[in-house]
Amino acid sequence: MRYDLVIFDNDGVLVDSEPLSNRLLAAYLTELGHPTSYEDSIRDYMGSAMHRVHDLVLERTGERLPADFDDVFHTRVFAAFERELKPVTGVVDVLAALSADDVPFCVASSGSHERIRVGHRTTGLDQWFDDERIFSSQDVGRGKPAPDLFLYAAERMGVAPDRCLVIEDSPLGVQAAVAAGMEVYGFTAMTPAAKLTGASRLFAGMGELADLLS
C-alpha cells in the first residue's frame, strides 16, 4: 500500500445521498423563490458546505436565505435518509479490505457532524467510523475547495499530506485534495470524468477502487 491514510468523502462516496439531498435542495430553493433544477443543484452545490448555498444565492439574487434554512433543509434530508438512504454499492467491501490490511482510513465531509452520523447510523457504516475518524467542514474555517478540511483530517490522524489518498466524487473535493498536496482518486458514478480534473485515477465502481488499492 503506497499510502498511510485513505480519506473518504462521505456523500456520494460512502453513502448514496447525493440524489436525495440535491433533489430536496433544488425543491426547497425553488419553493423559496429561487428556481433550481436537480441538475443545477448537482452542478453548483454537490460536494460543498452549506455556506456555499447561502453565498451563491446572495451573490446571484441579492437576497439572503431564511435564518432557519439549514435546520429546515436538514430536517427534510434526515427524514429522507431514514426512508431511503443506502451505502454506496461495494463500499463496505472496500472498508473491510482496508481494515483487514491495517490501512488507516477516515471520512472528511462538507456535511455537518450530525448529517454524517445520521447517514452512517442509517446505513450501518457507523461500525467502521468512530468519532476519532469523522471530520466535518464544521471543524475548520473553510470548506472545500479550500484544503483546510483534508489537512485537518491528516493532522489529527498523524499522517503527512503527501502520504494521504483522498477518494472524492465532486470537482470541489478534488480541488481541495490537490490543494492539500494529496493524491486523489475520482469516483465517476455521478460526475463526468472530465469534471474531475486533477484526480490521478478515475473509477466508476467500488470494485474498481478495490483493485486500485490492492
Q: Secondary-structure map with pairings?
A:
Elements: E1 5-8, H1 18-31, H2 38-45, H3 50-61, H4 69-84, H5 91-100, E2 105-109, H6 113-123, E3 134-136, H7 148-157, E4 164-168, H8 171-179, E5 183-187, E6 201-203, H9 206-213
Parallel strand pairs: 1-2, 1-4, 2-3, 4-5, 5-6
Describe this entry's structure for a reader.
With about 210 residues, the chain is of the alpha/beta class. Helix content is about 45%, strand content about 10%. It is built from 9 helices and 6 strands. The chain has helices at about 20-30, 40-45, 50-60, 70-85, 90-100, 115-125, 150-155, 170-180, 205-214, and strands spanning about 5-10, 105-110, 135, 165-170, 185, 200-205. Strands 3-2-1-4-5-6 form a 6-stranded parallel sheet, with helices on both faces. The longest helix is centred in the middle third of the chain and has 16 residues, at about 70-85. The radius of gyration is 16 Å and the shape is globular. The model has no long low-confidence stretch (mean pLDDT about 95).
Concise summary:
This protein has 214 residues and is an alpha/beta fold. Helices cover 46% and strands 12% of the residues.
